[in-house]
């Protein structure tokens, strides 16, 4: 079912409850040891650029996919997205936005900045569960990623 | 004089003769005045409406009388000018004694007037001659017209030729009651000429009458032209007055200008020709009446303001309006530029500074509101997602009877519900700032700070923070409860972000920056990464994801400070180097 080497995920989510939801729903895809969780925008950038606490590339491997919340402490999610897409060595990493915001301006800006997909967190257990299940199948099972250097 | 002897008379009585003379003079003057006003009235009738114009209105009767007399003297024929109904306008010239006798009888007069009336009635352009309907003498008549309408008749005649039957004349005069002996005596006095000769005389009269008709038309046309010009002048004067009044009293500033061109025809400046009082009110610039400065001089700018726009209007004549901020006067204006004549232009402008400021305030408020609703909807939705999802997990975990997971689910639900309740409370509090305020009073700074410290005493104690407060005699002015909230939030914030500091210290003090009193709260905590300073006071913004709190505290402090006419900012040399929050409040004083 899974083609190529298993993909690693960077989860950028400041709400521990929402991070837990994502983890639980993706558990079926056996990604638990391949998800790296950071809690704010600055940490996400530091992780990706191997700065500060994330200087060691061994413990902070380059992710194959980034799951990004928009409203984040320190550096806003849209800013993180823009910085990723502006960085020569990061721009090929697909970014999926997962947020509670369905504001048109956020949608437009996210796509302008080259987001791969935009998902709105539903206020409904079944829907949220199904959404993350579908996300898992699509991105973790079927989607083909470029080879990591 | 009699008057000298009479008692009680205070004014001399003029002599009989001079009194009559005076009355006559006055009468003359009145007559002339009436005549003039009638003439003017008649002559200023709208074109085409000549029905009321009379011969006397057009000509001076004395002049006409002189012409008529001279004509009669030269030709010997009798003459008179009557109106169209045969009523005399001039005095008769050279009337024969016989005709006067006939006119002296009632029947004769009726016949004579009827004859006169008929004779002037035109058959062709020149009138005609005919035997009179009274005594059968040769008469002729010709009409004087204004355009096609007769206004008078020039009658000549009382002429006899060789065919005169004296017996018929006698029979007629006897029948109307004139004494035959007197008629016989008067008969030789009649003017005698041949019919041909009389026709020639009549032709001369007809030509003269035609000249008078011509003249009458010219007089009317001239009078009309003069009147029209006078009307036009009058209305120009009135409209000038109207516009001058408008110019003086209108609320918009008006300035009239003349472009100044270089030898290549390029506009290089403009001269201010005239300005209205509102101009001076809006700009604060007062011009002497004889002063016509150049734009560059008046506004003290390197290039005359809006030269390009003004020059274009002066060249094309196409009016143009725009809104602009005018730096020399630090005002916003709406300017309408019009060009009444090539090379000149007028500006009409209003000061819209207040409106612009209000618009900007409104724009900021709208933006703030938009950000607010966006944030609120997001931040309230987040815990809701948590509650709903973990309720789902909880149901599953109950089925699976997984007690450990159930505890975890419940904890998440609990935390999210608490967060929502906190958010709602604090939002309500925030929304009340500026709406529901207590009366502003002057309070010593130390009183406000003490109350704030009491409210966060638990946390201070827990973190073992030492706090120093200035003893400078500072008095703050405002809603005391709200000011306490500001200090409470700032101290709370300082204690919360002490990090690993082993000896946490907080200093509350005051500084004088020029005329401004600045309050500050300085800590030796974790400091602020300068990159994230802009998000510090944002609603629901949390720089540190792990810490408790909703992210409203600093937004609330900022809002309260702003409502009190002050501003707030944070300073930090970086991470680990502590933070200083500084703020001002309107009317804060240091007593000396």
Compile the SSE list and pairings.
The complex is a heterodimer of chains A (149) and B (592).
Chain A: E1 9-12, H1 16-26, E2 35-38, H2 41-48, E3 65-68, H3 77-86, E4 95-99, H4 104-112, E5 117-120, H5 125-142
Parallel strand pairs in A: 1-2, 1-3, 3-4, 4-5
Helix pairs in contact in A: 2-3
Chain B: H1 2-5, H2 16-43, H3 55-58, H4 61-75, E1 78-82, H5 97-103, H6 106-119, E2 128-131, E3 138-146, E4 149-160, H7 166-176, H8 180-186, E5 191-192, H9 195-249, E6 253-261, E7 267-275, H10 277-283, H11 295-299, H12 307-316, E8 320-326, E9 331-338, E10 344-351, H13 353-399, H14 403-432, E11 441-444, H15 445-455, H16 457-463, E12 466-469, E13 474-478, H17 480-496, E14 505-513, E15 516-523, H18 553-563, E16 568-571, E17 579-583, E18 589-590
Parallel strand pairs in B: 4-5, 12-14
Antiparallel strand pairs in B: 1-4, 2-3, 3-4, 6-7, 6-10, 8-9, 9-10, 11-13, 13-18, 14-15, 15-17, 16-17
Number of domains of chain A: 1
How many domain units of chain B?
A: 5
CATH class of the largest domain in chain B: Alpha Beta
Helix content of chain B: 40-55%
Q: How many DSSP E strands of chain A?
A: 5
Strand order of the largest sheet of chain A: 2-1-3-4-5
Q: Which two chains share the most extensive interface?
A: A-B, 28 and 31 residues
Spans where pLDDT lies below 50 across 5 or more residues of chain A: none
Write down the overall mean pLDDT of chain B. Answer: 86
The CATH fourth-level homologous superfamily of chain A: Response regulator
Descriptive report:
The complex is a heterodimer of chains A (149) and B (592). Chain A is an alpha/beta fold. Helices cover 38% and strands 14% of the residues of chain A. Chain A has a single domain, classed as Response regulator (Rossmann fold, 3-Layer(aba) Sandwich). Chain A has five helices and five strands. In chain A, helix 2 runs parallel beside helix 3. The longest helix of chain A has 18 residues. The radius of gyration of chain A is 14 Å and the shape is globular. The two termini of chain A are 23 Å apart. The mean pLDDT of chain A is 91. With 592 residues, chain B is α+β, with helices and mostly antiparallel strands. Chain B folds into five domains: 39 residues, no CATH class; 165 residues, Beta-Lactamase (2-Layer Sandwich), CATH 3.30.450; 102 residues, PAS domain (Beta-Lactamase), CATH 3.30.450.20; 72 residues, Helix Hairpins, CATH 1.10.287.130; 150 residues, Histidine kinase-like ATPase, C-terminal domain (Heat Shock Protein 90), CATH 3.30.565.10. Helices cover 49% and strands 19% of the residues of chain B. Chain B contains 18 helices and 18 strands. In chain B, helix 15 crosses helix 17. The longest helix of chain B is centred in the middle third of the chain and has 55 residues. At the A-B interface, helix 1 and helix 5 of A face helix 13 and helix 14 of B.
């Amino acid at each position: 079912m899974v083609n190529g080497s298993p993909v690693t995920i960077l989860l950028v989510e400041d709400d521990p409850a929402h991070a837990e939801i994502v983890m639980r729903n993706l558990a079926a895809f056996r990604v638990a040891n391949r998800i790296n969780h950071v809690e704010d925008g600055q940490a996400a950038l530091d992780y990706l650029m191997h700065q500060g606490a994330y200087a060691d590339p061994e413990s902070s491997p380059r992710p194959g996919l980034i799951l990004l919340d928009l409203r984040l402490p320190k550096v806003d999610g849209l800013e993180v997205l823009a910085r990723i897409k502006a960085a020569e060595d990061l721009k090929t990493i697909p970014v999926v936005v997962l947020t509670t915001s369905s504001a048109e301006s956020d949608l437009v800006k996210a796509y302008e900045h080259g987001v791969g997909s935009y998902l709105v967190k539903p206020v409904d257990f079944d829907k949220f569960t199904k959404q993350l299940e579908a996300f898992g199948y699509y991105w973790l099972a079927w989607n083909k990623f470029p080879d990591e250097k | 004089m009699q008057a000298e002897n009479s008692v009680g008379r205070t004014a001399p009585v003029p002599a009989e003769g001079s009194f009559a003379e005076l009355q006559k003079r006055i009468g003359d003057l009145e007559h002339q005045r009436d005549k003039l006003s009638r003439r003017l009235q008649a002559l200023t009738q709208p074109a085409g409406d000549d029905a009321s114009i009379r011969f006397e209105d057009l000509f001076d009767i004395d002049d006409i009388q002189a012409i008529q007399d001279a004509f009669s003297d030269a030709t010997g024929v009798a003459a008179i000018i009557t109106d169209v109904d045969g009523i005399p306008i001039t005095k008769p010239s050279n009337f024969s004694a016989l005709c006067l006798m006939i006119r002296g009888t009632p029947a004769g007069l009726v016949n004579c007037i009827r004859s006169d009336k008929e004779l002037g009635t035109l058959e062709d352009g020149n009138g005609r001659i005919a035997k009179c309907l009274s005594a059968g003498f040769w008469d002729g008549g010709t009409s004087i017209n204004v355009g096609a309408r007769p206004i008078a008749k020039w009658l000549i005649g009382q002429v006899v030729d060789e065919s005169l039957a004296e017996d018929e004349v006698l029979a007629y005069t006897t029948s109307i009651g004139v004494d035959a002996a007197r008629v016989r005596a008067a008969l030789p006095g009649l003017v005698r000429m041949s019919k041909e000769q009389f026709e020639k005389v009549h032709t001369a009269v007809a030509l003269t009458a035609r000249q008078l008709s011509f003249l009458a038309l010219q007089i009317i046309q001239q009078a009309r032209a003069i009147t029209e010009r006078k009307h036009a002048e009058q209305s120009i004067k009135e409209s000038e007055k109207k516009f001058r009044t408008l110019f003086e009293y209108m609320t918009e500033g008006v300035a009239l200008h003349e472009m100044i061109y270089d030898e290549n025809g390029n506009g290089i400046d403009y001269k201010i020709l005239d300005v209205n009082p509102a101009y001076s009110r809006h700009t604060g610039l007062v011009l002497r009446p004889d002063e016509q400065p150049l734009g560059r001089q008046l506004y003290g700018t390197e290039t005359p303001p809006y030269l390009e726009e003004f020059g274009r209007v002066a060249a094309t004549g196409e009016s143009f309006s725009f809104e602009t901020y005018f730096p020399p006067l630090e005002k916003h204006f709406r300017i309408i530029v019009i060009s009444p004549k090539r090379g000149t232009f007028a500006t009409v402008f209003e000061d819209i500074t207040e409106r612009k400021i209000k618009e900007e305030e409104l724009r900021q408020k709208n933006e703030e509101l938009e950000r607010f609703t966006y944030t609120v909807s997001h931040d309230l939705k987040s815990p809701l997602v948590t509650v709903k999802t973990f309720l789902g997990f909880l149901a599953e975990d109950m089925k699976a009877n997984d007690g450990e997971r159930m505890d975890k689910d419940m904890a998440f639900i609990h935390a999210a519900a608490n967060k929502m309740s906190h958010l709602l409370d604090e939002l309500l509090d925030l929304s009340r700032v500026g709406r529901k305020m207590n009366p502003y009073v002057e309070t010593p700074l130390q009183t406000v700070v003490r109350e704030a410290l009491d409210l966060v005493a638990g946390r201070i104690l827990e973190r073992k923070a030492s706090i120093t407060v200035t003893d400078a005699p500072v008095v703050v002015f405002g809603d005391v409860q709200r000011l306490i909230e500001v200090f409470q939030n700032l101290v709370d914030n300082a204690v919360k972000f002490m990090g690993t500091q082993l000896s946490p210290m907080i200093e509350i003090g005051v500084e004088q920056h020029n005329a401004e009193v600045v309050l500050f709260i300085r800590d030796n905590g974790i400091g602020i990464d300068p990159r994230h300073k802009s998000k510090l006071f944002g609603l629901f913004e949390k720089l540190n994801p792990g810490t408790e709190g909703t992210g409203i505290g600093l937004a609330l402090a900022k809002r309260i400070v702003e409502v009190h006419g002050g501003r707030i900012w944070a300073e930090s040399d970086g991470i680990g180097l502590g933070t200083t929050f500084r703020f001002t409040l309107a009317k804060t004083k240091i007593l000396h």
